[in-house]
Design brief:
heterodimer; A: 382 residues; alpha+beta; 6-stranded mixed β-sheet; 5-stranded antiparallel β-sheet; 22% helix; 35% strand; B: 584 residues; mainly alpha; MetI-like fold; globular
Chain lengths: 382, 584
């Protein structure tokens, strides 16, 4: 289990200083897969490097299985090589002057008390088997492809049986097909070994696919924490909604509340959202709509339909994505299984699906964690 | 669109097929012609000295009167001479010691600079870059004065209980040449360590390796080929060096091959065969060293530069920070501050004396006024400037065309061109000087070049070629070929592509190349010493003869002015041409 409290990292001092990580706290349950998700420069990699001990925090503390790794307040610091970790780097960092087995066996060769040679051989073979490179031990590491280097890096991180596995954007240097395969393999190996894992990525698809818990970061702080399906379906923050591709954002006022739902009037028409916490009528809120949150009509179905004009359309195999002008705003609409594509300039009518709107908050100080989440999805974990 | 699809497959009279092929052929011819011209020019520059040397070493009576035949006698007599083992022994001892000390100190400084939080980094960089423009002759002169028996350095050494240094000795030679070479080792180490992927070390730490284990198992093995390659290059440059052995070694009777070559050409009758054989010895050692250096250097470089490193983390030296500061300050004092101060001090005295309160009363600008009242010195200064500017411009021009052909075309002979243009690294100035002297004395050429300014430019351009190319070729390969293709699609001719796209993008690299070659020519003594005449005299040669006459303080005054001119030139050209990266 990893416990991170009020972590802070400021580079430099004085007017030129830069705070990369500020007030970051989270807990990774034993055996869980936690993802730090965010755009470049959000502090996710710095957080991972603080976990590894490659940087010293300027505030806060990190505990692994109850043992203090670093505490700025207590002035204690366990250097990287004494932490129970395995790490995979974005560049893989495979040592070019060693064989595959030399790379994978290195963590065991430097272990004290010494690991017997026979055991090293056995465990290296075991680690290579786990990543599917069982027969490549004698290869020079420079003769490997990108995907193979990536597996060697994973085997090297696992061979010393660390308590925590740290992955720094390990998939970003692979091509699309290989990336998907390695993504599945990482999840499979992680679940089989039950190893607590912290994964850093800027790719929302990777984060959703792999994680037990997603931590969304922006500008050095945690914006939101939750299960992948919570984060995806019911983002609490405008930032999260945008980052996960819920691209249609509106401002409106709460006109009506009725138990679990609220009606919000926007400039284009009303939207309904499900809510857990009561909202005050008349208050101004931010609302997000998914591209598939509307049904689409060629003729005016009357009532609450929004009238728009198709600006352009893109085809995605399983769906069409229409960019539609409504008033002075452009929104994205996804239509699945439509045979005849609409063309530029076509007039269409959009009917928001009831309850599809998501009320979000603009990023403010502090984290919105699952405990005060207001959407009705049942929490599976506590 | 519809029309095009319906058009018949037969060639349409509207399609410009014939003219297109004519144009293509013309264009290829144009490129080939340039390629042939540039290859012939470079081949002439490089092969003439080597060829002359080989021929001279194999002729029984080269440049003499009477019959001459092919023979190996020069080799047997020179290499078999009783003095040869001690000559080669001294040369190797001198080069090996300088290589060892310069590499160790230079690499240690580079490590401190790149990887640690040592204080005063700017000072270390300044102390490594500025000495590159100080001519070897001036550096040697400054140290000879500083290390005089009751000089300031020896007095300090004596005061702290260390033995005095006798400058005219092997120790003095190694000391001065080492100080002169450390900046080069530092710069090579800096680029090598700077390009090493930090995550390779971090991965070792994350694997549980303690810092000393990471150094031993990861850092040292990865740097070893690069450091050895750099050391071999330093060895080659040292065994080809002339100024320090001539100024300091010869008075101490410590002869090395380069000084022996110069000595043999200045005695009458000149033993051309012996000189050529000694030249061949240096050439073979240099070629061997460079070949090994390239092979080793090629082994690091690419492999260690993978992926993108994170924010550079520096190693906290803790209490050792202050020890490292002492090292940096000592280095800066020895490589830059003390020599320059010694030069300025001496240049203000009518006759050299050690710094003291009494000497303060004798300070005068008479040396400087004397320089401006001596026509021969002014003439030499004029020649130096003309020759340096020409060398810089011609070398840059040749190199930019050669680099274009090497990087941006697929011409079949371009490997030959590359080999020829980089070969002069293995061609010591002594050899260029001797061989060109022989060639322009012996060859039946229509134009008489011996003793002219032109012959000096030819010699300096030859020596500067590989350095010019080292600045321009990488810059060319960084420019995507798509930029050329985009310009061609916009209707630009090949010449327009070159002048409108490449030249502006290459401006920083061209500036750096010009500057570096200009500085090389400005400083060059060795080959000039063989090739100058009364009318093509240059400053370095004037200073050398003044030094022999004992006019030490005048030499120092000229040295101060030369350094000042070079510093101003660097600043001016930098302002005009954008940023440069010295010796990258």
């Amino acid at each position: 289990m990893i416990k991170v409290s009020a972590l802070q990292k400021t580079f430099g001092a004085g007017p030129g200083s830069f705070t990369a990580v500020s007030g970051v706290s989270f807990t990774a349950e034993p055996g869980s897969f936690v993802t730090l998700l965010g755009p470049s420069g959000c502090g996710k990699t710095t957080t991972l490097r603080l976990l590894a001990g490659l940087e010293r925090p300027t505030g806060g503390s990190i505990h692994i299985d109850g043992e203090c790794m670093v505490s700025a307040e207590a002035r204690s610091f366990v250097p990287t090589h004494r932490r129970p970790i395995g790490m995979v780097f974005q560049s893989y960092a495979i040592w070019p002057h060693m064989t595959v087995a030399g790379n994978v066996g290195f963590p065991l060769r430097v272990e004290r008390p010494r690991v017997p040679r026979a055991e090293i051989t056995r465990r290296v073979a075991e680690a290579l088997d786990i990543v599917g490179l069982g027969n490549l031990g004698n290869r020079m590491s420079t003769e490997l492809s990108g995907g193979q280097q990536q597996r060697v890096a994973l085997a090297r991180a696992l061979v010393r049986r660390p308590k925590v596995l740290l992955l720094d954007e390990p998939l970003s240097n692979l091509d699309a097909e290989l990336r998907e395969r390695m993504r599945d393999e990482i999840r499979e190996v992680q679940q089989r070994l039950g190893i607590t894992t912290v994964f850093v990525t800027h790719d929302q698809a990777e984060a959703l696919a792999l994680s037990d818990q997603v931590i969304v970061m922006e500008a050095g702080s945690i914006v939101e924490t939750g299960l992948p399906q919570e984060i995806y379906n019911f983002p609490r923050r405008t930032f999260t909604a945008k980052f996960l591709g819920v691209s249609n954002n509106f401002t409106g006022t709460v006109s009506e509340t009725d138990g679990g739902t609220a009606t919000i009037s926007t400039a284009h028409g009303p939207l309904t959202a499900r809510t857990a916490a009561p909202l005050e009528t008349g208050s101004e809120v931010r609302v997000a709509m998914r591209p598939d949150g509307f049904s689409i009509h060629r003729r005016d179905p009357g009532a609450d339909a929004w009238r728009g004009t198709v600006r352009f359309a893109t085809y995605h195999g399983d769906s069409w994505l229409y960019h539609v002008d409504i008033g002075d705003q452009s929104i994205k609409i996804r239509v699945i299984k439509e045979k005849i594509g609409l063309a530029r300039g076509d007039a269409i009518y959009l009917v928001p699906e009831p309850g599809a709107a998501i009320i979000t908050q603009d990023t403010g100080p502090g984290d919105v964690d699952g405990s005060n989440r207001t959407h009705p999805l049942e929490r599976k974990r506590t | 669109m519809a029309n095009a699809q319906q058009a018949p497959a037969a060639p349409s009279p509207l399609l410009p097929t014939p003219t297109y092929f004519t144009r293509l052929r013309q264009r290829l011819n144009e490129q080939n012609v340039i390629f042939v011209i540039i290859t012939v020019v470079i081949a002439y520059l490089v092969l003439v000295p080597v060829g002359t040397l080989v021929v001279a070493s194999l002729r029984s009576n080269f440049l003499g009167f009477g019959p001459s035949s092919w023979t190996l006698h020069n080799y047997s007599s020179t290499l078999g001479a009783s003095s040869f083992p001690s000559l080669i022994g001294t040369s190797l001892e001198y080069s090996a010691l300088v290589t060892l000390f310069a590499t160790v100190i230079g690499m240690a400084l580079a490590w401190l600079y790149v990887r640690t939080n040592t204080p005063a980094k700017w000072f270390a960089l300044l102390a490594s870059l500025v000495p590159l423009i100080i001519p070897g002759l001036i550096d040697a002169a400054a140290w000879v004065l500083m290390l005089s028996q009751n000089g300031p350095v020896n007095n300090v050494l004596h005061a702290v209980g260390l033995p005095r240094i006798q400058v005219y000795s092997m120790t003095g030679m190694v000391l001065v040449q080492t100080l002169h070479t450390i900046p080069l080792a530092f710069l090579m180490g800096m680029s090598m360590m700077g390009s090493m992927d930090r995550s390779l070390e971090e991965a070792a730490a994350a694997s549980g390796a303690a810092p000393h284990r990471t150094l031993r198992s990861i850092v040292f093995p990865l740097l070893r080929p690069g450091v050895l390659g750099a050391a071999l290059l330093i060895f080659v440059l040292t065994i080809s060096s002339f100024e320090v052995p001539q100024l300091i070694g010869v008075p101490a009777h410590e002869w090395v091959i380069t000084t022996e070559i110069y000595n043999a050409t200045s005695q009458y009758p000149v033993k051309y065969g012996t000189v050529a054989v000694l030249g061949m010895v240096v050439l073979v050692i240099a070629l061997l060293g460079l070949y090994l250096s390239r092979r080793l250097g090629g082994m690091t470089g690419r492999e260690t530069v993978t992926g993108k490193g994170f924010r550079p983390t520096t190693i906290d030296l803790g209490r050792w920070r202050w020890a490292s500061l002492v090292l940096v300050v000592l280095f800066g004092l020895a490589s830059l501050v003390l020599p320059v101060l010694a030069l300025i001090w001496s240049s203000l005295l009518p006759v050299y004396q050690n710094p003291s309160g009494a000497a303060l009363h004798e300070l005068t600008l008479s040396n400087y006024t004397a320089i401006f009242n001596t026509p021969t010195t002014l003439n030499a200064a004029e020649n130096t400037v003309i020759i340096s500017v020409l060398t810089g411009a011609i070398t840059t021009l040749i190199c930019v065309v050669a680099a274009y052909l090497l990087v941006k075309t697929k011409l079949r002979g371009r490997r030959v061109l590359e080999f020829l243009a980089t070969a002069p690294v293995a061609l010591p100035s002594v050899i260029i000087g001797v061989s060109l002297l022989y060639w322009y004395l012996a060859a039946p050429l229509p134009v008489h070049l011996y003793g002219s300014v032109t012959i000096l430019v030819i010699a300096f351009v030859t020596g500067a070629l590989p350095f010019g190319l080292r600045f321009i070729e990488p810059a060319f390969s960084q420019i995507s070929t798509e930029l050329e293709e985009a310009a061609a699609n916009s209707g630009a001719t090949r010449f327009q592509v070159f002048t409108r796209i490449y030249l502006p993008l290459l401006r920083p690299a061209l500036t750096a190349a010009f500057l570096y070659c200009f500085i090389i020519a400005f400083k060059e003594l060795t080959s000039a010493l063989f090739l100058y005449s009364a009318k093509s005299n240059v400053l370095a040669v004037s200073m050398y003869s003044m030094w022999l006459d004992g006019s030490y303080t005048t030499v120092c005054a000229i040295g101060v002015l030369m350094i000042a001119v070079l510093v101003i030139a660097v600043i001016l050209v930098r302002k005009l041409g954008g940023s440069i990266h010295m010796a990258r």
